[in-house]
Amino acid sequence: MRLKFIVLILVQVVLLAGIITYRHYWVTANERILLTSAPVDPRDIFRGDYVTLSYNASTIDLDQFGISEKFKRNDDVYAVLGKKDDGTYDIASVSRTRPASGKYLRGRVTYERDNATRREITLKQDTGAVRVFQRPWFTYKTGERVTFCLNADGRVMTVYPEKEKNPCRSGDPFTGVVEDIKTVKFSQIRVEYGIEHFFVEEGKGRAIETARNARNLKVEVALRDDGKGLITGLMLDGKWVR
Predict the structure, then answer these.
(1) Taking 80 as the threshold, does the pLDDT of residue 169 lie above it?
(2) Per-residue model confidence as pLDDT tens digits over 44-85
(3) Taking Cα atoms as reference points, which of 227, 166, 240, 159 lies closest to residue 198?
(4) Which of 28, 55, 93, 158 has the fewest CB within 10 Å, making it most exposed?
(5) For 39, what's the count of Cα atoms within 13 Å in the CB-facing half-sphere?
(6) How confident is the model at residue 106 (pLDDT cuts 50, 70, 90)?
(7) How far apart are CA 178 and CA 144, in angstroms?
(8) Does this model's pTM top 0.85?
């Protein structure tokens, strides 16, 4: 009985060492890139804090990329990445087949929707400047005056009514009158890439969740040539969390 116990412990040690060695090889042998993420922080009471991460490539508007073919659950998807001015990578196009070159993430479809909807809101400032913004939903009406808080990419983080004073705690404000609201239907797929979860030191999860709203959270990923990634760290307001 004692011999079996010792063998069992040795097997577990060997397996653990193999996992650590494989992870180390993956990280050192592949290029690391930065992705911008919007995390949510559920808590696992048995394993401490972790963040569930989502990317622009996680929910893909197929119409935006001119893709009319249908996808099914568990289909392979390749999100081709392009480098932005701030050094991070974002989805630039989508492919069913593995790209011949460049950087890309390989994922699988978790669901598809042919009748997804979003709102396109036309906002006019007092200066006469007009911009159109996209939101998954919008509760205000035409004629109302609102403030959109925009991140560095010009995406809407939050929306506040006119009566709110100094609403944008982060991001740039764009205040104006709602001139038009359109409901747009499109085809959408949800994709997982295997880089949606990252465990952090207990107590840090809430701070990471807060950074989501300002999109100050970046995810460092060791990216293999086949499009598979491994999270190696998070950058929160310019500081690393590993």
Answers:
(1) no
(2) 444 557 778 888 899 999 998 888 888 999 999 999 999 988
(3) 240
(4) 28
(5) 31
(6) very high
(7) 6
(8) no
Residue 143 predicted with pLDDT over 80:
yes
Q: How many helices (H) and strands (E) does the chain have?
A: 2, 15
Pairing state between β 48-52 and 239-241: unpaired
The answer to whether 15 and 170 have CB atoms below 8 angstroms apart is no
Return the exposure string of 48-57: e unless at least 16 CB atoms fall within 10 Å of the residue's CB, then b: ebbbebbbbb
DSSP state of 2: H
Q: Mean pLDDT over residues 84-92, rounded?
A: 90
- Rounded Cα distance between 211 and 199, Å, is 16
What are the structure tokens assigned to 110, written together?
A: 């978790």
**Whether 157 contacts 191, CB under 8 Å:** no
102 has which bridge partners?
none
Residue type, 102: G
Residues 6+ apart with CB under 8 A from 211: 39, 217, 236, 237
DSSP 32-73: EEEEE---B--EETTTEEEEE---TTTEEETGGGT--S---T
User: Which range has the worst mean pLDDT, 12-21, 71-80, 85-94, 148-157?
Assistant: 12-21
